[in-house]
Design goal:
Helix content: 25-40%
Shape: globular
CATH superfamily of the largest domain: NAD(P)-binding Rossmann-like Domain
Strand content: 15-25%
Largest sheet: 6 strands, mixed
Number of strands: 12
Oligomer: single chain
Number of helices: 8
Length: 257
């Protein structure tokens, strides 16, 4: 009986955080937060990876597990919006959420991807004059928001472009890509375990001369895309620093719950 009581007590006193997504084998988030909790001596804090086939039952999961806050990754950064009670100004402007705090039972969405990307890009010292973003999902939207804040013109690049600010892969040849051009991979293509995949056809690297590549993927690093672009003279950066920066921002938000 004492053991049962202790386990029930432990369930309610633990501070529980998590990352949700469809497949999470690539993620370093749990490792980062567990390291943080160990350094701070927060033995009553846990961070787990929760793979979800869909977001149905999200609120029930939060309530049942006593979740204090959670992060969101592909493919749910946009879809999660309809399950939330509120979003902050940045998340609303981007239309995507990667961090959710649980405040008095209410689910509140935030976006730390955008400021983390901006800070990580600024840390490179690259003088970027134009940018092309591979992808149109939640991560791509956060990148676009940050670039707009920085005054860097950009275009989305996708297989099936829709809208005036999107182009197809083969339209890249119509732009002057030798003028301090940044390519951002904001897709999961090339991420572990599909490490041989690339978001652009391989032959295009001999045609397009990007000066800078920021690949949001951090597992593996370098990605195949980074390797191919680097062989044509581009400077490259992976998404590991961005991951750490947004995790620090998420922790600040989680402590307010």
């Amino acid at each position: 009986m004492k053991i049962v009581f202790f386990l029930v007590f432990l369930h309610f006193v633990m501070k529980r955080y998590a990352l949700i997504g469809k497949r999470l084998g690539h993620s370093y988030s749990q490792r980062w937060f567990e390291g943080l909790f160990a350094r701070l001596g927060l033995m009553d804090h846990t961070y787990t990876l929760q793979e979800m086939a869909s977001l149905d039952g999200l609120r029930e999961w939060v309530r049942r597990e006593g979740i204090c806050g959670f992060n969101v990754t592909v493919p749910y950064k946009q879809e999660v919006l309809r399950y939330l009670d509120a979003v902050d100004e940045t998340a609303a402007a981007i239309g995507a959420v990667n961090c959710v705090t649980v405040e008095g039972g209410r689910l509140v969405g935030h976006n730390t991807d955008a400021p983390a990307f901006r800070q990580s890009l600024e840390n490179t010292g690259w003088q970027v004059k134009q940018a092309f973003i591979l992808g149109t999902g939640g991560a791509a939207r956060a990148v676009a928001y940050a670039l707009k804040q920085m005054g860097i013109p950009f275009m989305f690049v996708s297989r099936n472009p829709v809208g005036e600010n999107q182009i197809g892969y083969y339209q890249l040849s119509t732009f002057n890509l030798q003028l301090s051009t940044l390519l951002v991979n904001a897709t999961p293509v090339g991420m572990y375990p599909n490490v041989d995949a690339m978001p652009l056809p391989e032959f295009q690297f001999s045609i397009f001369n990007f000066q800078f590549l920021f690949d949001l993927i951090y597992n593996p690093s370098p990605t195949r895309l980074m390797h191919e672009v680097a062989t044509h003279g581009a400077q490259t950066k992976d998404g590991l620093e961005m991951l750490h920066l947004q995790a620090e921002m998420n922790w600040e938000l989680f402590q307010q719950c």
